[in-house]
Amino acid sequence: MDKARPIIIKKKAGHGGHHGGAWKVAYADFVTAMMALFIVLWLLNTSKQIQEAVGGYFKDPSGTSKLVGTDMRGSGDNFTVSKDNMAALKEELQKRIRKMNDFEKLKNQIEITVTDEGLRIELLETEKGTFFDSGSPRPNDNGKELLSLLAQELGKLPNRLTIEGHTDSKPYSGKSEYGNWELSADRANAARRLMQRESVRLDQVSQVRGYADQLLRKKDDPEDASNRRISVIVQYLDKTSPPAPVGAPGENKQAGEKTPANE
C-alpha cells in the first residue's frame, strides 16, 4: 500500500492585504487638516489687506476680476498702475485716508485726481497751516501721518513718484536769502525724506520739484492759502523703461532742514 501523502494546509494572511495602504490615506488626511489649521491660524494674525488678498485669490484664482482682494505688496513684479486701473488705486487710497485721525477736519484739504501724468495727490494748506505750519519746511503731525500713510501704500508699487512743493504769491517774510523758491523745494524734500523713511524706496522717487508760486492752483486768487500745497504724483509706467524694482525701503541719512520764521 502506498504511503498517504501529507496534507498541507496553507493559511492566508489575516487582514494585512485589506489594511495595507489605509494608514497612508489617513495620514495624508491628517497632514492636510493640520496644514489647513495652520493657515487659518496664520490668517487670523495677519492684516486685513492680506486676508482680503487670500480671499480674493480663492474667489478669482485667474486674477482677471477687478482689484478686489488684491495685495499690491505681494504682487510687486506683476502689479502696475496704468491708465486702466489708476482709478482703483485712487479708491483704495481714499479708503485708507478715511481712517486717519481727524479725517473730518482734513478731508477738504486732500485732493486725489487722475491726470495725464498719473495719479496726483495734493495736500492743501489752510491759512493757519494744515500739513505744514506756516513758514516751516517741516511737516506737522497731520502731515507726518498722511505722508506716512501714502508711503506705506505707494511703496508697494513699481511706479515711480514725483513730489512737488508749491507756495502762494505772498512774499516770504523770513530771511532775505530765503524765499518761496527755497520753501517750496524744502517742503518737497522734507516730504520725500519722510516717505523714504517709511516704505518708499530710495530709487522710487524720480523727481523732486520746487515751483514757488509759478503753478498756482487758484490763478484768480494768487494769495489763497490752498495755493500752498505738496503734490505727490504716481507716474504711469513708461513702456520704454523698466519699472523701479520693488524691494525693501531704504533709510535716508541726510541732515535736517533749515527752519525759517514765517511764510
Descriptive overview:
The structure is a single chain. The protein has 263 residues and is of the alpha+beta class. It contains seven helices and five strands, in the order H-H-H-H-H-E-E-H-E-H-E-E. It has two domains: 18-68; 72-235, OmpA-like domain (60s Ribosomal Protein L30, Chain: A). 33% of the residues lie in helices and 12% in strands. Strands 1-2-5-3-4 form a five-stranded mixed β-sheet. Helix 7 (180-198) links the parallel strand 3 (161-166) and strand 4. Helix 6 (141-154) packs across helix 7. The N and C termini lie far apart (133 Å).
Key terms for this structure?
single chain, 263 residues, alpha+beta, 60s Ribosomal Protein L30, Chain: A, 2 domains, five-stranded mixed β-sheet, 7 helices, 5 strands, disordered C terminus
Question: Shape, please?
Answer: rod-shaped
Global structural class: alpha+beta
Number of domains: 2
Write down the CATH class of the largest domain.
Alpha Beta
Number of DSSP helical runs: 7
User: Low-confidence segments, ≥5 residues, pLDDT <50?
Assistant: 64-78, 248-263
Strand residues, percent: 5-15%
CATH architecture grouping of the largest domain: 2-Layer Sandwich
Neighbour order of strands in the largest sheet: 1-2-5-3-4
Average pLDDT metric: 79
- What are the secondary-structure elements, in order, as H or E? HHHHHEEHEHEE
Query: How many strand elements?
Result: 5
Assigned CATH superfamily of the largest domain: OmpA-like domain
User: How much helix, percentage-wise, in residues?
Assistant: 25-40%
